[in-house]
Amino acid sequence: MSLATHQASTGRQIPDRLKTPLRRFLASWELLLLCVAVAVFILNSFASPYFLDPWNLSDATYNFTEKAMIAFAMALLIISGEIDLSVASIIALASTAMGFALQLGAETPLLILTGLGVGLLCGAFNGFLVTGLGLPSIVVTIGTMSLFRGISYIVLGDKAYTGYPSEFGFFGQGYVWWVITFELVLFAVTAVIFAILLHRTNFGRAVFAIGNNPVGALFSGIRVTRVKFALFLLTGLMSGVAAICLTSRLGATRPSIAFGWELEVVTMVVLGGVSILGGSGSIPGVAIAAFVMGMVTFGFGLLNVPGIVMSIFIGLLLIAVIALPRIVRQILARRKA
Amino acid sequence: MKLFKSLLAATAVAAVCIAAPAQAEDKRIALVVKALGIGFFEAAAKGAEEAAKELGDVEIIYTGPTDTTAEGQIEVINALIAQKVDAIAISANDQDALVPALKKAMDRGITVISWDSGVAPEGRQLHLNPSSNPLIGNMIIKLAADHLPDGGDVAVLSASATATNQNIWIEEMNKVKGNYPGINVVATVYGDDLADKSYREAQGLMQTYPDLKAIIAPTSVGIVAAAQAVSDAEKAGQINVTGLGLPSEMAGHIESGASKSFAIWNPIDLGYSATMLAYNLATGKAEAAPGAEIEMGRMGKLELNDNNEGAMADPFVYDSSNINDFKDIF
Prior knowledge:
- Chain A is built from 16 helices and 4 strands.
- Chain A is mostly helical.
- In chain A, helix 5 packs antiparallel against helix 13 and helix 5 packs across helix 14.
- Chain B is 42% helix and 20% strand.
- In chain B, strands 2-1-3-4-5-13 form a 6-stranded parallel β-sheet, with helices on both faces.
- The longest helix of chain B is centred in the first third of the chain and has 17 residues.
């Protein structure tokens, strides 16, 4: 807080959110999401007698924890005006590298370092192409999306790496206390870290500034390319973390691992109130959105709704979320006139 | 806000509609497939429903992910564990990655079996194979012999010389060919599972052996190519192409007479048997253990080997009498 007030006192203030007639509405986006989360929770409890069971809810958290960890980093990246669509492929490559290290006799600590290291390397590669060569991130990461997963396919083909050590299984299958899984704790910890990073540090202010006006940010003395490169590194790192959790949970690596996750991660971020055009958003919003998506898919699963209906619902939800502010703005404008 | 509210209201309505009241005493058996919307699995679901009707007190939950991924199946399995279903019968997308989730299901008292595509032994109680190598080896020569009461020359058109499955089947066929007197296997050629190479190999067989009466192709690519070659040579009716094929691809050749019959697993029987097995294990009427024999209704008994795996039956024979019922399924 002191940093923000300090900046305000020097006369240069960059708002967290765009100043529109909608400002108040957007300010309460997290509240609205929270209402949705509560509503989903209540609806689910009525719809299925199995929903309100601590163990079931604990299992259900796996539906979003890994994706949400990437979504936090992705939120920062999208706020800064960039995007990384290669995250799911980074998981595949990191997981393949871990399996390869396992074949060579690596123990759990080395496996974790391998996963994190490959995630960082992939992030650095994306970051270099975007900030070093000035290429648009959406094109670069569509390319690396195929590239990273392609390498996994070449290494593995139709085979799988299995036989991970049992202590490695703790990351994706272990419980810290009662029904609280290790992944849930990791989710909470990363949420807090990213919330502080985005909302309470100079780095976070710089991210908002770049997203709102990259040229202005540059002339204000912010090292735009350096910040963006760091964000790609961070996204790669979090993909590596997710790769460790997922590989540990599955106990096996196949090149199709985490297929299609990039879209679910982006959906979480946008549902969390992050502007897809950059410049605004919040970590609490993304965390609640992750929770909402996890509970919706779990609730549908309990009712044995086919996956395709779930996809349709998530798609509608996303469109509604993007369209909603626009519609409300038009209504407000009409009332004023 | 209004939109959101109506969206939620719509969800609520949908949720209520979908949550059809299940009778409490019914055994709930989940048939989990690789992905929804695949004809083969829709047919298996039909078989499961048939078994449920026969058993009476069974509710089938037919489900699966949208993509053929292990993660998708794990989400489905978690939802099924949460519902405390009585049994899960799964065709797995990954034989290893599903093990932790299925182990958890078994820990919580759910019967778990795999069918069609198996799970590693520690992740299931038994695995149901559609057929077995000896049964397939016997079936492919029987198909040729059935239409050759006086015997004659037959040739085998296989996939590649290194194809494990085909080699085993041909080996099994050679073991039992003494049971079919008069049937003379003159050659084995390899089309490498390529349509054009298989076609040329079939042409070569017809030229080399003018008295050839049948071509046995235990590969879905080879059988179609050979049937095409026989049709093009206008020898449909003289040379019978048989082996293992898919009804959708073979329907035309059955109609033209180039192939009188062929075989492949029947997905309806597979879904039916999986349901019967899951029911018998879940109700405690049978135990999965090496050497055990478990009832599967009209399909007879499943005999388990040391790995708790068993073979359902002979491959199912398709001919002009039933091809139209199956050609749209798979």
